[in-house]
Structures are given as structure tokens and as C-alpha cells.
């Protein structure tokens, strides 16, 4: 029983040691590929932002020009409400 437990522990130590060695060899390649992916995503984002800015500025009207689609409607209900509001009294504050 003690022999099987010792054998099991030694196998676990050996497996972890091998994984550690493999990870040290593979880590630079993994990090390089992740960095390249992030760089390409950042470049794509930058291109999209530039394209959106170009579209925005090309659609914008030249400075100093104004275009009115329609005039605002006159609100006649507000005047009627003020006429029916009652009597307004001036007052002075007494100290």
C-alpha cells in the first residue's frame, strides 16, 4: 500500500514537471500569437473609426449654411391657459 501511494505521488510530480517544461517551451509562441491577434484587432478598430469619421464629415453641411426642414408650430393652448388662470396680485414682502 505504501509502495502504490509513493508511486502515485512520484507520477504526479513527474507529470507536473513535464507540463511545466512544455509550458516554458510553448509560452513564447502562445504569447506571440495572442499579441498578433490583438494588434490586428486594434488596427481594424482604428480603420473603422477613421472610416466613420470620414463619413460623418462628408455628410456634414459646410459651416455657415443653415437648413430648416419646417417651422415649429405655434402653441395657442398656452395663451388660452394663461388667460383663464385667474387674477394676479402684486404683493410686497413684509418684514
Which SSEs are present, and which pair or pack?
Layout: H1 2-59, H2 76-83
Structure description:
The chain has 95 residues and is mostly helical. The chain has a domain at 30-59. It has helices at 2-59, 76-83. The longest helix is centred in the first third of the chain and has 58 residues, at 2-59. The N and C termini lie far apart (101 Å). This is DUF4834 domain-containing protein. It comes from Solitalea longa. Residues 53-84 are annotated as: Disordered.
- SS element count, helices: 2
Give the percentage of residues in beta strands.
Answer: under 5%
* CA-based gyration radius: 39 Å
Backbone structural class: mainly alpha
Number of strands: 0
Percent range of helical residues: 55-70%
Succession of helices and strands:
HH
| Main sheet record | none
Shape descriptor: elongated
Unreliable segments (pLDDT under 50, ≥5 consecutive)? none
Distance between the termini: 101 Å
Average of pLDDT: 84
Amino acid at each position: 500500500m505504501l509502495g502504490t501511494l509513493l508511486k502515485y505521488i512520484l507520477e504526479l510530480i513527474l507529470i507536473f514537471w513535464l507540463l511545466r517544461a512544455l509550458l516554458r517551451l510553448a509560452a513564447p509562441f502562445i504569447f506571440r500569437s495572442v499579441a498578433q491577434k490583438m494588434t490586428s484587432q486594434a488596427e481594424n478598430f482604428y480603420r473603422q473609426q477613421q472610416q466613420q469619421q470620414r463619413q460623418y464629415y462628408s455628410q456634414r453641411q459646410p459651416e455657415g449654411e443653415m437648413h430648416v426642414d419646417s417651422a415649429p408650430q405655434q402653441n395657442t393652448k398656452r395663451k388660452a391657459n394663461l388667460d383663464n388662470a385667474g387674477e394676479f396680485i402684486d404683493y410686497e414682502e413684509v418684514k
